[in-house]
Amino acid sequence: MPREEMKGWEDDKLNRLYGILAALIAVLLLSSCGAEEEENEDTLQVYFISNSETKVEAHPHVMESTETEERLDELIQCLSTNPEKLEYKAPLLGFQLLDVNWDGEKVLLDVDASYLELPVATEVLTRAAIVRTLTQLDKVNYVGITVEGNQLSDSLGDAVGWMSADRFIDNDGDEINIYDQVKVKLYFASEDGTNLIAAFREKYYSTNIPLERFVVDELIAGPSGHVEELYPTVNPATKVISVMTKDGVCYVNLDENFLTVINNVSTDISIYSIVNSLVELSSVNKVQILVNGEAPAGYPTNTFERNLDIVVTVENK
Question: Is the pTM of this model over 0.70?
Answer without folding.
Answer: no
